[in-house]
Amino acid sequence: MDNDNFGEGAGQARPQRDTGTADFGQPKPAPARTVRLVSGDFLLTVNPVDGSEIEPCPPGEQPPRPARRSASERAELLRAAQPPVPPGPPAPRLPLLERDEERERLVRLLGRGRSVRLTGPAGSGRSALLDIVAEDCADLAPDGVVRLSGYHRTPTELLYELFAVVHSAPKHRPDRDALLQYVREIGAIVVLDDLEFGGAALGELLDAAPECAFLVAATPDVPAPAADSHLEEVFLAGLGRSASLDLLQRAVERPLTEDEANWAGDLWFESEGLPLRFIQAGALLRQADSLRSDPDELDEYTPFDGIAEVEVPLPTLGEGAAPASLLASRLSEAARDTLHFAVALGGEVPHQAHLPALVGDTHADASLGELMACGLLSPVGSRYRLAAGVLAQLTEKGYAEDAVDRAHTAAQHYAWWSGHPSVTPERAVAEADAVLAALTAMVPGQEAGHPSAAVLLARSAGPAFAAGLHWGAWERALRVGSEAARIAGEVAEEAYFHHELGVFALCTGNLDRARAELETSIGMRGALADKRGTVAGRRALALVTDREGGLVPAGRTPAGEEVPAARHEESASPPGGVPAAVLPPGLRTGPGMGAVGQSKSTEEPATVVSRASAGGAKPRRFSVLGGARRNLVAAGAGALLAAVLGTVVTLGATSDHQDPPGNKVRNGQSANEDDTENGLDADVPTDGSTPSPGDEPKNPGEVTPGASSSTGSSSTPGGKPSSRETPEGMPTTSGKPTPKPPKPTPSTSSGRPTPSSTPSSTPSTTPSTSPTASESPGSPGGSTSASAPITSSAPASNDPSAGGSPVI
User: Fold this and answer.
1) Domain boundaries defined on the chain
2) Residue 397 pLDDT
3) Topology of the domain covering 99-237
4) What is the distance between the alpha carbons of residues 390 and 394, in angstroms, rounded to a whole number?
5) pLDDT in tens, 544-578
6) Cα gap 773→787, rounded to integer Å
7) pTM of the model
8) Closest among 506, 468, 465, 794 to 653, alpha carbons compared
9) In this structure, how many other beta carbons lie within 10 angstroms of the beta carbon of residue 660?
10) Distance CA 381, CA 613 (A)
């Protein structure tokens, strides 16, 4: 990552080490690191001050398709990924003994494109065997050999590291789908050491890169791969007795005495031939030789107090099986301090460049060479950590008594170092495991000031991990920093970590987690009146809502504000309501319908289109936040319902204007069940018929409250027809039918009568004595008619010759 992305405007002071000199002026604020990255289709600006800013990537900012690295570039990356050579005299280079059969088998399987799992106990020489096999397979695959470390890595992190080795994509982190597409095209031999997962996770890794042959190394306690993974299993056992003695002799660089050979035989039986035990045993014998050649140094080592100057006995069998404390007691003070820091950091050894500052000795970097020569360290990726079993042995001997203070010192140092502008993100990523170990040791804090130190370290290292595209370390730093800020009571810092976790979740596609984290951050920053942070959080939350494409939970806006009138039913109408043009006039203004288009005669409410304001004011529409798909479905359903209702209303309005077909039954007529030839005949009232009592309205112009009109047949108890309503809504009081109005001319555009052809009519009134429902004894069992709006209940004729359509 280039250093030209460091801005001067948003700087904040970084913690400075105490140099013992007086500070006569205000420290100059260090420039804050701001880096622009492309994550998927997002443009991410890593801002360590107010929080990262995320926005859709503009078209001009989209990176080109990643190019493949050349063979020389891959070789350079491979050399850079190796752990640094420690200063000081090099340790003896030991050969690989009794591994020829396993070596040939691994090369043969990888050459056929088969993936292999190498299983062996810690200290069995798995890493040394992988180094030899990687050299033998250098020319077998188009993309060469890719060396990866599975220590504290997930399958997703390993896929991104595989992509970064083969493709050149600076400041670009593709999304999951694009990543899988790029990885599918990689054809390489992937040598993966220190694998920590198996089962379905390992199968996911293998399936993501079908053109690669994997050689993974793991200990027996790692879960086995799935049965359908098609992995070849190769087990690595310990060395034989003769090979173990040969390895010890090569480590000492001289022939063994008889006593030393016997001691080595007992050690071989106890350790089951693990090569690491004989490398450490050779270091014990070399130290003894050094003491014999220089007796003046004998008094400096307490384990040999009271022993003759020329006699250095052989270690016991127990010391040979667990030699860490004895080996450490014969090392320099700086080397022992380095071991103290390694124990405090859970086995992680700081880079040799940090040892002088941590130990307080300018030559402390040479202690790394001493530890390597003694077999107390082992390479892991691009760094070193304590060898297998060394951490437990040193802890038992009291090396963990000051672990908390050492971790606090390391946390303060890394907080200053990782936030310094001169430190590139790549350097911070290379030290990520030691930084995270120091961070984790501070939470929960055992003493005052430890959680605050963890907060400061997470604030400094987190942006560097994000800029270096090591997002696994970025996430872990944010989570530990959030917990530390909660313990320390630093609300502003806790809000920052929640914001960063929300941005991280948004970039990785976890929208539910992103919403929860961002809403928490916005609430905290709103309480603190942090304007810039709140705005950044609301912008990120708006992107979450846009990606969800649906209704915001709990009736909130993208900015997290409450919307009192928001509705969450699945039948919510599209934003702005259903267009008024698709609703028939009778549905909007007809009797029985409210201002919101909701039926009053049924208990189940209709779909809300708008909400009427109090006092009969103009209806106020409100939009409902909903998903695009749900809006389309709701709009289509509303349009269909409106079209059906409009058709029914139109047919009902036009059918009563037509001549009755023959003597068929119409509104206000009773039926004669004796005539079955042409259907039920209508009882047409005669001129001398007497209207039933109560049919004459007292005041035709007065509307009786609570009265309703009946659309079905209504007759008197004597079987005489009662007053009925004409299609115009006028009751017949004289017993003669009202003259038939002229037939309306249907409109060609809407299918309804034009206003010019529809005769004006007086509003229908019903006397107060008329029942809402009447029974007709003229029909079998009688018929009951319920009150309903006139405009939507008039039945249409069943005869096509009458100009109507059959009613279904």
Assistant:
1) 99-237, 239-321, 567-611+619-671+790-802
2) 92
3) Rossmann fold (3.40.50)
4) 6
5) 999 888 544 444 444 444 444 333 333 343 444 43
6) 7
7) 0.66
8) 794
9) 17
10) 69
